[in-house]
From TrEMBL:
Domain of life: Eukaryota
Residues in Reverse transcriptase Ty1/copia-type domain copies: 6-82, 87-167
PANTHER family (UniProt xref): GAG-POL-RELATED RETROTRANSPOSON, RLK (RECEPTOR-LIKE KINASE) PROTEIN, PUTATIVE-RELATED
Protein name in the entry: Reverse transcriptase Ty1/copia-type domain-containing protein
Xref: InterPro entries: DNA/RNA_pol_sf, RVT_2
Species this chain originates from: Rehmannia glutinosa (Chinese foxglove)
Amino acid sequence: MNEEGSVVRNKAGLVAKGYCQEEGIDFDETFAPVARFEAIRMFLTYAAHKNFTVYQMDVKSAFLNGLLEEEVYVAQPPGFEQKTIGVLVQIYMDDIIFRSTNKELCDKFSNLMQGKFEMSMMGEQTFFLGLQVKQVKDGTFINQTKYNRDLMNKFGMEEKSSVNITMNTSVKMDMDAEGKVVDQTRYRALIGSLLYLTASRPDITFVVGVCARF
């Protein structure tokens, strides 16, 4: 989906079951599957400071490209009946962001990458890993409006009104023996979602961090 929530391309998803792998047998090294939000914010901050325009490229069918140096086994998820399909994959990162003060260098890099790999130029960066980016002359603005809206709908709060309440930094939280029992799975899902939202909302970082302890 794009930043407006419209479907722009259908993709197949592959999931690595890392929990059943053993070092030295199934893998020899590890890597971060996605960039850290701290790194993205630093990248955008420096680009804005230097008046760079940030561009984005996307790898077409990244999971099906690349040369394999080892055997990779893929299984279909539960519920599929076809047992004869086999797939070998090499997993690559499929999104690239880059910058330069020289537009010609950006065009040269884009043409070079598209000549070597199956990639598409997406123009100026507007949406990356759930982060909406607006690049203007006054600076670069980031937000997660779409993610926040989806979050409200997911937890049934789309009709609720918002109220700003400052949390006391010295508050002590403990178990309420007479309180109402909550759904632990739902609570953890909510806290995990809010932790992701702190990428663009540092004002809620403290309170979400406190709630994440429970």
